[in-house]
Amino acid sequence: MQAPHNQHSPIAAAKKETRRRLFARRRGLLADDRALYNAALRTHLVRFLEDQEARTVAAYSPLGSEPGGPELVSVLAESGLEVWLPVSLPDGELEWALFTGTDDMDDGALGISEPIGARRGNELLQECDVIVVPALAANAAGVRLGKGGGYYDRALATAPSTTRIVVLYDHELGVNLPVEKHDVATGWAVTPSGVHAFP
């Protein structure tokens, strides 16, 4: 397991403040605007996955204020994809379970909806065609800012060659972010305005 980073470093403090601002802006979106943004974002993401000829994806269950909205997982599954979702473990690690429908979900340790079926480890990510990654923002190089737990940085590090696309609102793309060595970059971003490739 990766060594924990210094929670009291200047970079960690800068990340905390950046997260606070980004969370506040997300919560401030009007419901009608958020619904329009999320619908457009889901359409672009499904088209991207079709262009990638993806069959199996690892995704996530968005909370109400997160890009893509709670319908994201169902839309991906209804497009014919096999969708694996994360299950959060107490030690900051992720396992993965297959999404088989909203009736087979339960609230996990972090209050996020998780599948209740059989689990697999991060080796699953190497078998996926695309990893759909949550974030609060990404910089111009595709380095993402997560919520601070390090779950995804650790998981993504196990599948460096798998295509990954981060899901954001447009104002969260190309943000100047404090970056640490363990932060993992993504190759693509999807926003309500379309799909964007990082250099």
UniProtKB/TrEMBL annotation:
UniProt key word Cytoplasm: no
InterPro entries, per the entry: FTHF_cligase (IPR002698), FTHF_cligase-like_sf (IPR024185), NagB/RpiA_transferase-like (IPR037171)
Catalytic reaction(s) noted: (6S)-5-formyl-5,6,7,8-tetrahydrofolate + ATP = (6R)-5,10-methenyltetrahydrofolate + ADP + phosphate
Extent of the signal sequence: none
Keyword Metal-binding: yes
Molecular function per GO: 5-formyltetrahydrofolate cyclo-ligase activity; ATP binding; metal ion binding
Binding site for ATP: K15, K16, E17, T18, R19, R144, L145, G146, K147, G148, G149, G150, Y151, Y152
UniProt-recorded name of the protein: 5-formyltetrahydrofolate cyclo-ligase
